[in-house]
Amino acid sequence: MVKITAAEVNKLRQATGAGMMDCKKALVEAGGNMDEAIAILRKQGQKIAEKRADRDSSEGVATVKVNSDNTKGVAISLNCETDFVAKNDSFVEMANKMAEIALDTNSKEEFLNKKFDNLTVQEKLIEQTGVIGEKIEIGGFEILEAPYVGYYVHVNKIAALTGFSKKVDKAEELGKDVSMQVASMGATTLSYKDFDPAFIETETEARIAAIEKENIELGRLGKTPKNVPMYISKAQLTPEVLAKAEADAKAELKEEGKPENIWDRILPGKIDRFISDNTTLDHEKALLDQNFIKDEKKSVAEYVKTYGDVEVVSFKRVSLA
């Protein structure tokens, strides 16, 4: 039997990240041959990966990397099975190293075939599945390129990137704030103008039906029913719809006995309320139309305008949730 030294075991451990006993067993099986021992450990990792293929890997680390001139960014999540592994420093370090590698690619497929030490990224994932004993995989993978890219990471669980039309003064602050909005509020599109008409129609019917059903229960409990909106997006608020809303507001003021000479002071608030009540889809799903989380009196679009002639052109989000 070949004598295996502690130095050889440590060398294999440094190369693979495997446990000391696993490294020693692999070296014994390989007759002291380092390359063969690495291959043995890799095969073990493959077997474990196959056994755990159907396991849920909803924990992990979400992170971003942006290039030196802030024109390209990548957001990835390195997923595992337990929070215990996700919080391990070496796991976090591996996620950040993988993000650095991903920054130099243009697709997830290209990234998985990039070199990570002496392996490809895909082989490294399999190896680490064997080492750690949990399913390890790349969950989210998003690349964003723009004249200026800002970013934000929320406690290693959500990573967001935002692309802007140009770099402005305090661009880093703007980029962080809007990316924080992306991370926190879960927008799926940039503007209400991007919604498909068929989607809006389906959503309108579903939301109205849900509120009406809820109102039946509220009525049974003797509680005040919720307002049932006619619309859910600015895309539906045509000039004709807004004109009717203004006419209805005037009729209401007249019925309340409000003097006509003060209507001009009251009408703007009523129209704003009408728009707010009938644009719930925009507030939830359209980034620029959401209320800005740091100042809800402004929309995100209005906040961005405070930085000058700059626009949000795109955004990406990766989440473990």
Q: Briefly, what CATH class of the largest domain?
A: Alpha Beta
Give the helix/strand class.
alpha+beta
Round the Cα radius of gyration to an integer and report it: 28 Å
Mean pLDDT: 92
Count of DSSP E strands? 10
Beta-strand residue percentage = 15-25%
Mass-distribution shape: elongated
Q: How many domains make up the coordinates? A: 3
Low-confidence stretches: none
CATH topology of the largest domain: Tetrahydropterin Synthase, Chain A
CATH architecture heading of the largest domain: 2-Layer Sandwich
Taking the sheet with the most strands, its summary is: 3 strands, antiparallel
How far the N terminus sits from the C terminus, by CA atoms, comes to: 50 Å
Protein architecture, described:
With 321 residues, the protein is of the alpha+beta class. It folds into 3 domains: 6-51, Helicase, Ruva Protein, domain 3; 59-186, 2-Layer Sandwich (Tetrahydropterin Synthase, Chain A), CATH 3.30.479.20; 193-296, no CATH class. Helices cover 49% and strands 18% of the residues. It is built from 13 helices and 10 strands. The strands form 4 sheets. Strands 1-2-5 form a 3-stranded antiparallel β-sheet. Strand 1 (59-66) and strand 2 form a beta hairpin. The longest helix is centred in the middle third of the chain and has 24 residues, at 197-220. The model has no long low-confidence stretch (mean pLDDT 92).
